[in-house]
Design brief:
Helix content: 25-40%
Shape: globular
Oligomer: single chain
Order of helices and strands: HEEHEEEHHEHH
Low-confidence stretches: none
Mean pLDDT: 89
Number of helices: 6
Structural class: alpha+beta
Distance between the termini: 36 Å
Radius of gyration: 16 Å
């Protein structure tokens, strides 16, 4: 284990990538936790198929002090390339990728302060022609209050960075950005099983 100063979240994630020795890489952030003890078993079972490049599932945002209280349910749904231009993206904390994909397409662009995960997933999903597998279950619970939605200022920074990521990766435009943000509204009304 390495614990040392870094230059922000994405710099730290890139350091983790450089140290990763396994075949598959996923990130569980400080305030996130697995929905149940079998999550990684199900992810590993999906990667047992050598043709699978990436795996993801659903995510719930939970109350910071009461992790059993669901605030938002992000049902990702099956991957289709055309969904990217409508603002669709899997939840990053549920996104597992073969290390060889990171080696081919790179890690996180640290010029982004809030949306480097979105940029990275866009790069991979729009250019890599990956075989992507969806696990239709909640894999991760995330406590509300993360960096991207901590304040109105951060939300505006994230929207600006999302627009930059879309342009950089040649995926959609203003309509995509609007779709990405509007797609979050039903998440507040949907509940997991």
């Amino acid at each position: 284990m390495v614990s040392e100063p870094d230059e922000g979240i994405y710099h730290a994630l890139n350091k983790g990538l450089s140290l990763a020795s396994g075949d598959v890489v996923g990130f569980l952030h400080a305030d996130d936790f697995y929905a149940d003890p079998e999550v990684l078993t199900r992810v590993a079972e999906a990667f047992a198929d050598d043709s699978v490049d990436a795996v993801y599932g659903d995510l719930v945002y939970v109350n910071k002090s009461d992790p059993d209280k669901v605030i938002r349910y992000w049902k990702a749904g099956h991957f289709e390339f055309s969904k990217l231009a409508r603002g669709w993206m899997p939840p990053h904390p549920t996104f597992y990728v073969r290390r060889t994909v990171y080696e081919r397409f790179g890690g996180f662009d640290t010029s982004f302060h809030i949306a480097a995960d979105y940029d990275c997933m866009l790069r991979m999903l729009s250019q890599a022609n990956l075989n992507v597998r969806y696990i239709p279950e909640v894999l991760v619970k995330m406590r509300v209050g993360g960096k991207s939605n901590r304040s109105l200022k951060n939300i505006l920074i994230k929207m600006n960075e999302d627009a930059r990521a879309l342009k950089k990766n040649g995926v959609g435009g203003l309509g995509t950005l609007v779709g990405k943000n509007l797609s979050k509204v039903p998440q507040f009304f949907r509940r997991s099983k």
